[in-house]
Design goal:
The complex is a heterodimer. Chain A is built from six helices and five strands; from the N terminus they run H-H-H-H-H-E-E-E-E-H-E. Chain A is mainly α. In chain B, a hairpin with a 7-residue loop joins strand 2 and strand 3. The radius of gyration of chain B is 23 Å and the shape is flat. The chains are: A mainly alpha, B mainly alpha. Chain B: Keywords: DNA replication, Nucleus.
């Protein structure tokens, strides 16, 4: 750590990055800055121990002595705590976005999102979505990831975005050709909409 | 119409107010607005699920029997709404668990969860713990590695996120409750009149929400 470095500045930058991000969106995991803060913690810790040793060598009681070294130790301790809180806030906030993703995208992450995650985050996404899946299995397969908005009308107007072909819709076959517009039961269409093969026409 | 079936309008309304759909709506609204997780409505959820299944059967049957499509779609809409409410109710609870899993598992809020929710919460915490360990805690010096305490020097768990009970909620009560103290010192009190809408701190009306005297809207 350089002499002019202000303790905790990097951790603060890390948290600011969160604050500036679009809510609900992830930026790439900032490995570089993150590791610098971790390093800063290690330095604080070793300096904390050096001061303890020095006080013990001088025959002072670490708990009760109130000299410059004691307050030095305190500053290192508190700076370390602050850094820890910032680091935890950083990963915890990101974990909330990841939890949200497991509701929205299912079990497999789109590549452009996966690239922004650290390895532990990828593992966390997997384990969290499987926790969610196993809850739904426990509820006799009640799917909680559909029906995210209150239904207005059982039927909706949709435009087909992909050639789906002739499909049984209710009691008759419908030709879901690309660009065709249909009036379908919401529950039938929802499944296609999630896969991006249809879009709802509003208004 | 109500008279023909032998009901007065008031009787009809009070009957509707205690129907499961109405009860579910209430439970759902309370859950949505309360900052903390509320008691799981086990039997209500069970009954609602059975009724939804029954409705599904009815709709299939009347479609097969060639009923007017308009009537079918009214039934369908009714079922979709009930289905949505049930899903949203369960979803809201899971999202609260995601947010406060550690706090919930350490307090008596734990007893408010259903069995399925408890095992979800347990898994959530295991996942979160190993995620935090891997990304941060294992890289910190010893003595600073706890996920609950800031350091070994902390006597209590001082790093557990919990819901903010001081937040304001919209609420309404069906009967007059009388004076409610708004803070611990009881300097300020508010007289809750039946049917009036209030915006109060959740903390001050928490016991009334829990025993069902006040509804959140």
């Amino acid at each position: 750590m350089e002499g002019t470095e202000i303790y905790g500045r990097r951790a603060c930058q890390l948290v600011k990055e969160l604050a500036c991000a679009e809510p609900g969106q992830l930026t790439r995991f900032n490995d570089d800055l993150f590791n610098q803060v971790i390093k800063e913690c290690t330095v604080h810790y070793s300096q904390f121990y050096e001061l303890t040793r020095k006080m013990q060598e001088e025959g002072l009681d670490v708990q009760s002595a109130r000299n410059a070294d004691h307050f030095g130790m305190l500053i290192h301790h508190l700076s370390l705590l602050r850094n820890k809180r910032c680091l935890m806030a950083y990963v915890h906030k990101r974990s909330e976005v990841i939890q949200n993703l497991s509701w929205k995208v299912g079990r497999v992450l789109p590549e452009e999102i996966e690239n922004k995650l650290s390895d532990p985050e990828k593992r966390y996404f997997k384990s969290h979505s499987s926790a969610l899946q196993s809850y739904m299995r426990g509820m006799d397969g009640l799917d909680l990831t559909v029906d995210m908005v209150p239904p207005k009308d059982p039927y909706i107007k949709v435009r087909v975005l992909d050639d789906i072909g002739v499909t049984a819709m209710g009691d008759r076959d419908t030709n879901l050709a690309r660009h065709s517009i249909h009036f379908l039961k919401r529950s039938d269409a929802e499944h296609y909409m999630f896969q991006g093969m249809m879009e709802e026409l509003l208004g | 119409m109500a008279n023909e079936s032998g009901f007065s309008m008031e009787e009809f309304e009070s009957l509707m107010a205690t129907s499961d759909v109405e009860l579910l709506k209430r439970a759902w609204r309370n859950e949505k607005s309360a900052p903390e997780i509320l008691q799981f409505q086990a039997s209500l959820v069970q009954r609602s699920r059975e009724q939804i299944q029954l409705m599904e059967g009815t709709i299939e049957e009347i479609t097969r029997n060639g009923f007017d499509p308009l009537i079918v779609s009214v039934y369908q809409m009714d079922m979709d709404r009930a289905q949505y409410m049930l899903r949203s109710y369960l979803r809201t609870r899971l999202q609260k668990i995601e947010k406060d899993m550690i706090h919930i598992s350490k307090t008596d809020l734990w007893n408010r969860l259903s069995k399925e929710e408890q095992s979800f919460s347990k898994r959530c915490y295991e996942n979160m713990k190993s995620y935090l360990d891997e990304s941060v805690l294992s890289k910190l010096p010893s003595g600073y590695q706890s996920d609950l305490k800031q350091s070994n020097a902390s006597e209590e768990d001082d790093m557990v996120p919990e819901s903010n009970l001081e937040t304001f909620v919209f609420c309404k009560s069906e009967s007059s409750i009388g004076a409610i103290p708004l803070d611990d010192s009881a300097d300020e009190i508010v007289d809750l009149v039946a049917g009036d809408l209030y915006v109060l701190r959740y903390k001050s009306i928490k016991p009334f929400v829990e025993n069902g005297k006040i509804d959140l809207v």
